[in-house]
């Protein structure tokens, strides 16, 4: 052979062999945790430093999970059901569990997360969902017997869908040649939250500590609440009737001290020094129940990251955005193309012409890394929005804190309320203008008007699918997408619930991260006139 042909043939053969064997010999290729390896000490440390006020959840998980993973021949899969009010840590602990079984956590191909309102939204498609879910579980457990399945919003699932996976949770050695006994199933539900809240209040009134609450005090009540909750995922479920759920784990409502712990954790995660006056300010701004005693946080820790963010950045970083934006502008916009051509080598010029910096001179680019100019936003709000000091202050602080955070834990969601003509639409336009130079004409900003885009209640299922697909498709292209929903008072409630998963604390949903997106909801309030 001629040298070129020989080299080409050898290179092609090597490429083929590499493609075939690389996944096997690559030490960084993710592997199924067949041996059930688990660093219990590291997981316990994460629980102590990141999960607050949940002694029952910690104790139960640390007792059950290591023992199950060490068992080479378990008699059935491990099935855990986490119950509690919103913001108490159910999602968070499931993420920690996933991360300690597989380093990639929820991104791992061996960890599978299902969100009821996202993956199973239509009742009329129940039979199709059953088939798809069974196929998915079978296929993935066949590939990795140590697969982890997390079902969120179980209280919004159809009971028949839960019962469809009952065989995989039972004591069968094999089903059609597949052994499911080493898999882990975790269910997350708000059902039973009121039961747990009532128990916590009773203990407090009796002068007992919350740490005195035992699993035996609440577990049976939780199983009954789940079993009898009509329209909930476990309503009259065979999983409960046949005792296939190993543990019903309660998540207690959080007190002021736990909320402060969450805030301190958020401060440390952001790389700041803890200042107790800021911690107290953020914690005290939250809503507590009962109103007269203010014992338990209504939303748990769910709002602590955004609130702590705008407090810090309002006080510390207001002087920074102008400088940062100036540096960015010089580096991105003022570098003459002719200078680059004059001094660049051919290879450097090729790289420059193919770079986002060059491309963004002529086409709009997603501004994922652009420093946010809070000074410009403040100036626009003060010059153009009148008589709305509350809205101006909150929006400025919220946006500044959110955009200054490189790793937000959830998307920013703002709900603007007021009479017609008070500035709701105008303020959303100002936000759009400060995010992208093209403002409302930007391809990264999406406006929905209820009476225009979703006019027919009879087509609500179609609208759900279209809206979810639109959000997913656009955030996949640009994490910093902005979505504005006008006329929220005329929007079908089912359509609002359809986008709930995209506003939550998930790292990823089906491979897409929504945590850098912004959602703005505009609602008109009818003026009330007295006779």
How does this structure look, described?
This protein has 531 residues and is an alpha/beta fold. The chain contains 23 helices and 11 strands. It has helices spanning 3-25, 40-50, 55-70, 90-101, 116-119, 126-143, 159-164, 193-205, 215-228, 238-241, 256-269, 276-284, 304-316, 320-333, 337-343, 346-353, 356-359, 374-384, 389-404, 424-435, 450-453, 460-477, 493-498, and strands spanning 78-84, 111-115, 148-152, 184-189, 247-251, 288-289, 296-297, 412-418, 445-449, 482-486, 518-524. The strands form 3 sheets. Strands 2-3-4-1-5 form a 5-stranded parallel β-sheet. A 4-stranded parallel β-sheet has the order 8-11-10-9. A two-stranded antiparallel ribbon has the order 6-7. A hairpin with a 6-residue loop joins strand 6 (288-289) and strand 7. Helix 2 (40-50) packs antiparallel against helix 4 (90-101), helix 18 packs antiparallel against helix 19 and helix 18 packs antiparallel against helix 20 (424-435). It is globular. The relative contact order is 0.09.
């Amino acid at each position: 052979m001629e040298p070129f042909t020989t080299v080409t043939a050898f290179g092609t053969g090597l490429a083929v062999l590499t493609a075939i064997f690389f996944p096997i010999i690559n030490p960084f290729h993710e592997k199924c945790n067949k041996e059930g390896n688990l660093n219990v000490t590291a997981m316990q440390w994460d629980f102590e430093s990141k999960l607050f006020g949940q002694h029952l959840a910690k104790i139960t998980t640390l007792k059950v999970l290591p023992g199950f993973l060490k068992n080479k021949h378990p008699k059935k899969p491990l099935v855990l059901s986490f119950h509690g009010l919103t913001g108490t840590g159910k999602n968070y602990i499931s993420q920690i569990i996933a991360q300690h079984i597989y380093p990639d956590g929820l991104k791992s191909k061996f960890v599978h997360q299902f969100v009821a309102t996202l993956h199973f939204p239509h009742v009329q498609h129940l039979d199709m969902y059953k088939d798809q879910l069974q196929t998915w579980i079978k296929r993935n457990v066949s590939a990795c017997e140590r697969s982890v399945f997390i079902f969120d919003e179980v209280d919004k699932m159809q009971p028949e869908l839960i019962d469809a996976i009952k065989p995989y949770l039972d004591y069968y050695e094999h089903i059609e040649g597949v052994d499911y006994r080493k898999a882990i199933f975790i269910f997350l539900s708000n059902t039973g939250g009121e039961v747990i809240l009532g128990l916590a209040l009773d203990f407090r009134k009796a002068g007992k500590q919350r740490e005195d609450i035992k699993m035996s005090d609440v577990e049976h009540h939780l199983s009954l609440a789940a079993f009898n909750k009509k329209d909930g995922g476990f309503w009259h479920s065979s999983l409960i009737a046949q005792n296939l759920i190993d543990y019903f784990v309660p998540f207690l409502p959080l007190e002021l001290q736990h909320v402060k712990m969450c805030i301190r954790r958020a401060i440390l995660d952001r790389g700041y020094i803890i200042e107790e006056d800021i911690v107290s300010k953020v914690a005290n701004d939250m809503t507590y129940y009962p109103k007269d005693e203010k014992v338990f946080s209504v939303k748990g820790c769910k709002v602590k990251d955004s609130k702590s963010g705008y407090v810090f950045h309002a006080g510390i970083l207001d002087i920074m955005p102008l400088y940062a934006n100036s540096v960015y502008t010089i580096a991105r916009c003022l570098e003459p193309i002719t200078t680059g051509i004059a001094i660049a080598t051919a290879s450097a010029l090729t790289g420059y012409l193919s770079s986002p910096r060059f491309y963004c001179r002529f086409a709009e680019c997603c501004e994922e890394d652009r420093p946010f100019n809070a000074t410009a936003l403040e100036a626009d709000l003060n010059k153009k929005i009148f008589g709305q000091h509350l809205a101006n202050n909150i929006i400025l602080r919220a946006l500044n804190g959110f955009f200054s955070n490189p790793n937000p834990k959830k998307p920013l969601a703002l709900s603007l309320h007021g009479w017609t003509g008070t500035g709701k639409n105008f303020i959303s336009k100002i936000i759009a203008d400060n995010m992208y130079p093209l403002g409302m004409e930007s391809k990264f900003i999406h406006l929905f008007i209820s009476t225009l885009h979703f006019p027919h209640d009879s087509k609500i299922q179609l609208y759900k699918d279209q809206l979810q697909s639109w959000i997913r498709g656009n955030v996949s292209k640009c994490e910093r997408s902005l979505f504005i929903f006008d006329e929220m008072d005329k929007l079908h409630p089912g359509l609002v619930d359809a986008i709930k998963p995209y506003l939550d604390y998930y790292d990823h949903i089906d491979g897409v991260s929504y945590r850098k997106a912004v959602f703005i909801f505009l609602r008109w309030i009818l003026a009330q006139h007295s006779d």
